Amino acid sequence: MLNPEKWVTLHADYLFNYTISRINNHDLAKDLVQDTFFAGLKAKDNFQGKASERTWLISILKRKIIDHYRKINSAKGKAEVKMNFYTDGEREGEWIEERVPNSWDNAFEKSIENDELSVVLEQCINNLPEKYAMVFRMKTIQQFETEEICKELEITSSNLWVIIHRARTQLRKCMEDNWFRN
User: Fold this and answer.
1) CATH architecture of structural domain 106-182
2) What is the pLDDT of residues 6-16, one digit of tens each?
């Protein structure tokens, strides 16, 4: 059962931290979290209870983040097209290929590829069993100390390392199936 009245108290910090690690823009991160809450309110009748409230909100937030990157990349593409044509004279409408700097080194394509890789990696992490995903994120992404994780999750350090190993094995398989073979 959803409890929208408590979303800000229960989930805002978590969603913000999740967003800021992917967007790296404080104001935009706040806006995306706010958009997530609004979208959640609009879609609350579609909540089936198959996931926790937070997991459901994260899935909405992920789509907001992906939409943000698509919008940016689309705007950049349109700007690039406008700049890459001669606008007058005998060559009007032709590509200005000789004007493209060689030093760009495909940075835009690499940026898109990194964004796409991040999306696939996040999907793979989300497909892990909940405890595996939590431990993996805490140790590898958020860089918590082993002792902190063990105390918070009430597990032994040897259990933590077994979980990390299993999570990495499953992630490697998922990434091979969903990223490297595409």
Assistant:
1) Orthogonal Bundle (1.10)
2) 999 999 999 99
Give the CATH number of domain 1-100.
Answer: 1.10.1740
Query: How many Å apart are CA 96 and CA 107, to the nearest integer?
Result: 19
**29-65 pLDDT tens trace:** 999 999 999 999 998 888 888 888 998 898 899 888 8
Q: Where are the alpha helices (DSSP H) in the chain?
A: 7-23, 26-43, 53-83, 107-127, 130-136, 146-153, 157-175
Residues 6 or more apart whose CB falls under 8 angstroms from that of 82 comprise none
What values do phi and psi take at 93, rounded to 5?
Answer: 90, -10
Burial class (CB in 10 A: 0-12, 13-18, 19+), 33: buried
